[in-house]
Amino acid sequence: MSSAKQRTLNINVGILGHVDSGKTSLGERATKAKILTSGLRFPSRLTPFSAIFTTLPMHTVRALSTHFSTASLDKHPQSIERGITLDLGFSSFSTRVPKNLDNDLYEQVQFTLVDCPGHATLMKTVLGGAHIIDMMVLVIDVNKGMQTQTAECLVVGEITAQDLLVVLNKIDMIPEKLRFERIENAKARLRKVLKATKFRDCEFISVAARPGGADGMEAGGLPPIGMAALVSSLSSYVTTKKIERCFGTFLFAVDHCFPARGQGTVMTGTVLRGTCKVGDEIELPELGIVKKVKSMQMFKRPVQDCAKGDRLGICVTQLDPKLIERGMLAAPGTVPRFSTAVVLAQKIRYYKGRVLSKMKFHVTVGHVTAMATAEFFGNISEAGAAREDSSASPGMMDRDTINTSLQHSWKSSLPRQPSDQIFTEFDGQKEYSYYEELLYAAGMHEQNSEEIVDTSIKPVSVASNKRTLQNATWALLFFDRPVVCPPGGLYIASRLDTDIQKNACRLAFYGQILRPFAFDQDTSAMRCIKVFKLKRREGVIERLQDDKSAICKGMFKRETDLSMFQGMKVFTDRGEEGIISGWFGKSGKFKVFFRDGIQPVSEADKNTKLYLYFKRHAFDKEDKRVFQ
């Protein structure tokens, strides 16, 4: 590895929060705090950004950042005119290495701030950027508390981020005599909300990114409040756990692409996995194009290689920069393009709607959001099958029958960076049962309604240590258009068409991509997914032929192909077991043979019921067979 790379440690931070909470202004102000700076140098104006995903308002990013990339702080004309963020913005600042790290290895720590829009209609943009974050800064207007998008951002953080720092902004709006008391009251209310999440012990920092607001800035303004404490707190989250290098195939998240005159096309972003060096071939999976790396630059200096966590620009030749704005680079052949995938599915607890099979959702994979139809299934025990079959609604799973023998424990949160492991959670050789609805995992604790403050949305404890794969649910996602994602990648399914005035959580479920399929190219792959719908049919015994045979009716229509059911077991409501042996006449009646005999049917028992339990393939539409 190059020495230049080893001297700077990159940390990715996401900045999120409700619209107009002050995220963007914060980054602009850090320059006055005399923080160390560094930048990328393909064009001299481009600077690196180790992704810090923070939930701070626009003002927050401006106060912290000392370098702004060519994609910084959302240059969309409507964003400038309306004064709100409409797209992802990237900027960065650097600090000295914390004392708990090896100062001989690293010279400085660079934080990249990813400024996310806060408006409800732009949630898909937030979700698209969430896959590159290491930690999250949640910016909250101290005078308004938890708002609708604040709560949704908290749900996103639970799924994607390891750490959370809550920033209470706009404290300058509180009279100084009342400031301490009101800030403490705000913290107390927020702690009740966070108590139900994995961020229950998170830190609070009080700031004023732009004292006096926009008017104050134009008049020279007062200096920001709390910036030094915020930077110090961010630095305290930098641990050796965040700098672990990972082996495996190369994967790179591209967040910006532009032409460099005389050099080629530069793609800037973050290494999510593996290593790469100058001269290596890399693939743009969305385009199906393979290119050779011409050069790399990191912190104004050329480097020969890079590894997980590094923030840099990669230059290739003969690539139209208009073809890619955000996306992925990968080792050739390692990131598939697919239209269907088997995924793990975990319902977000405070999504108030039902999550039914065959419903359509907005599914975000990386920077792409596409429509997909979901169908759910799970693993049940042999003993549970009969109990499920006897339910009132065919195909509805009795969740008490789910197999609890799975040994794999659910991690504290889903990994944002996929690995090369073979995912054994889904076994293609096992049989699974179709679910009509995705339910919550069993054993999850309920929360009291009084824990919600200032909004009807309550954050979901999506990453609790109590959650395991004992009640695992899988899904088959059918995308309306092909997408790309490495196996193990994170997805989030939402209903973004929900009325934003209802103050309801729109994020429905999430999980990992386990097994992608290109069914348009390989239709036989569908037959390898052994998911069955459990069915039940009911008939009655009309009369007995002898002590071991009965004539029955009401179970089949006369046009039914009875050969599909011949030899199958049936049961009377008295517990007797028989076998379907064939038709009796042409009116839909059939014969059943009882090997151990059958009790006489009295006048009182004339309508003795008969039950047939069976299953058929849920996804292989060409296979019409039925099984027991």
TrEMBL record:
CDD domains: eSelB_III, SelB_euk, SelB_II. One of its GO terms (biological process) is selenocysteine incorporation. Residues 8-242 form the Tr-type G domain. Signal peptide: none annotated. The gene is SELB. Keywords: Elongation factor, Protein biosynthesis. GO terms for molecular function: GTP binding; GTPase activity; translation elongation factor activity. This is Selenocysteine-specific elongation factor.
